[in-house]
Fold each of these.
Amino acid sequence: MTVTQKTGQTIGTREDWLKARLALLEAEKDLTRRSDALAQQRQALPWVRVDKPYVFDTREGRRTLADLFNGRGQLLVQHFMLGPDWEQGCPSCSFMADHTDGMTVHLAHRDVTFAAVSRAPLAEIERFRRRMGWQFNWVSLHGSDFNYDFGVSFTPEQVAKGDLTYNFGRWPYPFEELPGVSVFAKDEAGEVFHTYSTYGRGVEVMMGTYPMLDLTPKGRDEKNVEYKMEWVRHHDRYETAKTQASGTVKELQGTLKKHECCD
């Protein structure tokens, strides 16, 4: 095998490739088995009864958390970073949401309903949803403690202290909104239970683009910077480097820095 001077990439024969691929296959199978075991451990977590009467603003009117199940037994919630008076949703949360519409019909056939939840009033949510062309159910908790109670929204007082509890630990950066995914179940008596939440890089479960990129030679091709997702734009805001105005670049960088996520 040889290494090219331009890219540093190893070049080999088909036999070289097959030998390396079979070794990788063993590692992939091991990861799959461990991932299956981890899923079983996740599913075995104890359920916690949700006693607080959360109510949401939806396109169909006011609805309870139990109503959001839409007749099914399980509910997946994306805690979408869109606060009151924000001009637009978080680029990373929008990247997550871009993968959603194609999944909802399949989730429904496995007894799962999907909903996104944000602090912004419903009118602001609908304005941004229409701009992005999304069809999934997206509701407002305007006036409710839901996102605060599930560890993704923080009061101005908490932010001022600069010491938040996020991802089951201390988070020193002062953000009012952070990303998360939560799961709920409803029993035959109609009682609702919290079963799981994930934060930080755990929300990559919704980012189907990433595992596809991981299959390619360049991988995610992200810069060696603190906020790896600085490349992500709203899907209607991608521009080429040659035509991008400096003011737009600065605006995007400011938005991304304000809404950056954690590891």
Amino acid sequence: MKIEDYLSSLPNSIISGEDVELSDETLREIFRFANLTKNDIFYHLGCGKGNSIIIALEEFMVKKAIGIDNNKEKISQGQESLQKKHITNGSFRHQDITISDINDASVILFWFSDEKIIEKMIPRFQNLKSGCKIITIWGPLTGHMPDKIDFPYILNVIPFKKAESLRDQMLAIFNTDCIDFAVAWEFADRYSKAIGSKNVENDRFLTILQTLVIWINAKNLGIACGDDIPDPVKSYIGILKTFFNIEVEHLLDH
């Protein structure tokens, strides 16, 4: 089956990231990357059970932290955590992020893969105050050049800088003139570790998939190193097809 069919067969909560909770250490890495300080008003859009809010308040001493999620149960867990710790400058909202008030934000963590949500949020971000930081994971905001990168963490600062093309975006993210298999694997591995689960085998499978996605996108955009398909790419394409019945070769522009 084609990889698109495989992905569509997975539960929507996995594809959307709804059931993926970032580890506390990953959250700390993100906050250090964004230089989160006591002067910031921090929002986590799609906050889950809200560990990010607790860490931002207790360890990075932000002025205020707000978590927003459409999962009522997880929001309740976050609210209970605040109450137990007697934290008064944090809050949670059970709300659709596309309509929630975020106008006072100075730093926003926004990890979504749904293109419809991203398209709705970009104009809202653009109306926020100058200097506001938007943190994404894996991919930059569509059509805009990142201001800071420590892959898989990407930072866009308002006002956004328009990207001339997806090619320019990729070259900026990977900070290289061309992308070979080693670069694709390194960056895919960074992503897997950042969102890693307790199941190492699943992380390995994710790394293989993401490596192929990175390299194939680079090839189609003309920024892969060399004209030939590297042997490791051929091997992983074969492994996916033989052992998992997943076909990705059709993604290549021939």
Amino acid sequence: MNIKHSVNLIESYLDLDRKPVGVKFFFSKEEFDNFDVPQRDRKVTYCNSVQLASRGKAMKLTKENQACPNGAMALKMRQVPEPMASGKARFSKNIYKDIETSKSISDQMLFLKEEPAGIAVMPLENFEVEPDIVIVVSKPYNIMRLIQGHGYFNGYTNNLRTVGLQAVCQDLTTYPYNTKDINITLLCPGTRLVANWQENEIGIGIPFEKWYEIVEGVKQTTNPFERNKNKEGIKKRLEERGLDASDIKFNWNYDDGSYSGGKIEINK
């Protein structure tokens, strides 16, 4: 499997409205400069760069491009100020009941440990080298299927963490980067404003080293989990891309015969 083939597969097995996004960190200015994608010529919030990439845009960013202080902090392109680290900043805005709770949020968020020279954010299919993180923002059903694909190889998902803040920069990017594990987010008010995500969208961040197995896991769990109507769409999308659809099995699911109905006798 390669990157382009993996995107073809996942866009066949899932009915995605947005493109999967790849994010790559460069810790060498020379490597950043040599990466053949134009640097954006204006500021942008990191989360909006991901949103733009999900619609087909490709860009490189440095700290000069960062339009959101919290995103810049997560990406180690801005120092965390004392009021944020101590919990005073969020407590002062009545986000948490006390400073201790607010500080615990700052303490548990995992940011980049080293400042990058820059980052590339673009559709995953555009990458010819491996990115660090894959981000998919979609309806909850598709995120469920990606988690099921992860579970096919890895079992129960034990380390999901989110709090409704720094959703794209921390939940979907720096947390998976640091832990080498997947994470989900319900997004947050800030990114929903500046990146204009849809109300029914949530996201998943995937370390690239897990990406291929998750794609394969989604493929392997299609027959037990997908119903006939979805399988028809999957079969059609596979065939349109010239991919093999012979493994799609209709009229069979993991829960066949599991459910019962009918009137019961109530003892009085």
